[in-house]
Amino acid sequence: MSSKTRRSYTEAFKEEAVRLVRESGHPVAQVARDLGIADHLLYRWRAEQQQAEGCGQTRHSLRAEQAELIQLRRENAILKQERDFLKRAAAFFAKESR
After folding, report:
1. What integer pLDDT is reported at residue 55 of this predicted model?
2. Hey, what's the torsion of the CAs at 17, 22, 23, 28, to 10 degrees?
3. What SUPFAM superfamilies would the database entry show (predicted)?
4. Which among 31, 37, 69, 79 is most buried, taking Cβ atoms within 10 Å?
């Protein structure tokens, strides 16, 4: 069984590849072939960059916001658990004091 290793590309490389497509006027497939990458990657990077530009945000700020959202959701879940525990404890002690 052959194991393929996944290649990772820097943000600078991705941005430069998309810039080449925009400025050269060449088809995405040709630029991808010239860079030695799969054309579907270049299509995806271009779409992500267009989406980020439409939102007025860069890739980095989108990732930072996504990371913050994940952290806030985790914190929210912990706070909900603590709240539920305190509700049960209050109910328990209210019963006990009667």
Report:
1. 67
2. 60
3. Homeodomain-like (SSF46689)
4. 31
